[in-house]
Amino acid sequence: MSAPTKSKDTLAAFGGEPAVPRPLRTLVWPVITDEDRAAVLQTLDGGPLVSNVDGESPVTVLEKRWAERCATAYCVGTSNGTTALTVALAAMGIGPGDEVIVPALSFIASGLAPVHQMAIPVFADVDPVTFTLDPAAVAAAITPATTAILPVHLHGHPADMDPLLDIAHRHGLAVLEDAAQAHGATYHGRPVGGIGAMGAFSLQVTKNLPTCGEGGLLTTDDADLAGKARMAREFGEVIEPGRDRDYISYRLGWNHKLSSVQAAFTTSQLDRFDGYQAARERNVTTFLDRLSELPGLTVPTVADGSTHAWHILRFRFDPDAAGLPGLTPEAFRRALHRLLRAEGVPVSRYQLMPLPDQRVFTDRVGFGKGYPWAAGTPMPDADIPVTRRILDDSLTIQKRHLNPAAGSALARYADGFEKVWAHLDVVARLAAA
Ligand SMILES: *Cc1c(COP(=O)(O)O)cnc(C)c1O
Question: Which PANTHER family does UniProt cross-reference here (predicted)?
Fold first, then answer.
């Protein structure tokens, strides 16, 4: 056997040539064009730099465009996705002692937002295929203190909104969609963010619709909620076109405004958003088609009637299906993590633990004196076996595939997976060690 052949066939962890050349391991995101630069410079030179001027501003332009894109009547810009969630909860009147049902698998902000409102997050398990709130787990978590459900369209896949809305309707609960990862995804033909009473989006740089820093957007069809959200965003004042600012705070408010420069950048990105998403759809489905051939590897799928924003790609691993009985899923995942990384496939874990295991919740680190938990008597968190299993047996690809030109890199990532799968005996030995 000649040396070059050997080096290509040998796993990179044992001295072989990595499947993914170095430049393809990190791909630029966000993609920043001259149009984006011009939009920012135009705002710097022409203003308005404040976001609460009377009349049109970069913020109102973006709000109008995003409301149209989500088919909602209103959109309210905020300083980030987390404040979009808290401003929405404030507008919906969620407060001390209220229980808000949140998926156990999400980014920390989904669990912190209720606490910011002095409400109590109650964590429910997720579906093993879509990774979004399991309606049966939600139904089981409801108590007389429950006032809201906070479904997260995790990784870009819409939560199963019809049964969730049904439960909410029966119990008189508010529904706030956390759409921070799911810009443009649809559920039964409707864009996410326009399905519950309100939807919260993040414009943080790594999200599918980015700004050049931090930003958020809130969508709703309800004029009253939109008005209250605007008040919560700006000191509790009424800021309306054509109305003189009276400097009176009518409600509890914060300063959670979106800045003009951030809005101008995102509006420019929005011009290319649908084109980028179409490219992503092609690149990702080609990639997943190849990976779906590998035994014991479950690729993300799309539920009937939904479209996926493909913000994060999560792969689950089953040692039995891979023909490696006797390995635990966790040991299999650890070995794959090490070998795939060595090949240059940028897999990583997304969330190291379920939200309820985070110290802020186990230690009840809130506002002090036990609050917000002291404001209610929440039942103990339910079992979340599905969330735990998912975190044990899966890895993700983040950010790389967002670039519309990611196709060739994803092909090399698939090479890396296939190479590791050609050495499952090595994986088994490593996992058992
Ligand atoms: C990013 C994210 C948020 C928070 O958005 P920020 O803009 O970072 O504050 C909330 N929920 C989910 C699911 C997210 O991924």
Answer: DTDP-4-AMINO-4,6-DIDEOXYGALACTOSE TRANSAMINASE, TRANSAMINASE
Hey, whose CA ends up nearest to atom 7 of ligand 1?
A: 81
Tell me the per-residue pLDDT of 134-169, one tens digit each, with 9 for 90 and over.
999 999 999 999 999 999 999 999 999 999 999 999
Residue 1 scores a pLDDT above 50: no
Question: Which mutation among 152, 153, 202, 218 tests ligand 1's pocket best, with the greatest number of atoms within 8 A of CB?
Answer: 202
> Residue 81 carries which DSSP code?
H
CA 106 – ligand 1 centroid, Å: 9
Residues 370-388 pLDDT 10s: 999 999 887 777 799 999 9
- Does residue 285 lie within any of the structural domains? no
The pLDDT confidence band at residue 242, using thresholds 50, 70 and 90, is: confident
Nearest CA to ligand 1 atom 10: 109
Ligand 1 binding residues, C-beta < 6 A? 80-82, 106-107, 109-110, 152, 178, 180-181, 202, 204, 214, 216
Over residues 212-241, the pLDDT tens digits come to 999 999 999 999 999 999 999 999 999 988
Query: What CATH number is attached to the domain comprising 185?
Result: 3.40.640.10
- Name the domain count of the chain: 1
What are 410's two structure tokens?
């994803």
What does the block give as tokens for 40? Answer: 């920012």
Give per-residue pLDDT as tens, 27-55: 899 999 999 999 999 999 998 888 777 78
Let me know if residue 352 belongs to a domain: no
For residue 82, the CA-to-ligand 1 centroid distance in Å is: 6
Q: Which atom of ligand 1 is nearest to the CA of 154?
A: 13
Domain coverage including residue 135: 34-272
Domain membership of residue 381 (yes or no) is: no
Q: If 0-12 CB within 10 Å is exposed, 13-18 middle and 19+ buried, where does residue 417 land?
A: buried
Index of the ligand 1 atom closest to the CA of residue 110 = 11
Quote the CA–CA distance of 237 and 253 in Å, as a whole number. 8
Is 309 a member of any domain?
no
Question: Letter for the amino acid at 17?
Answer: E
DSSP structural state of residue 199: E
List, in sequence order, every beta strand (DSSP E) within 51-96: 74-78
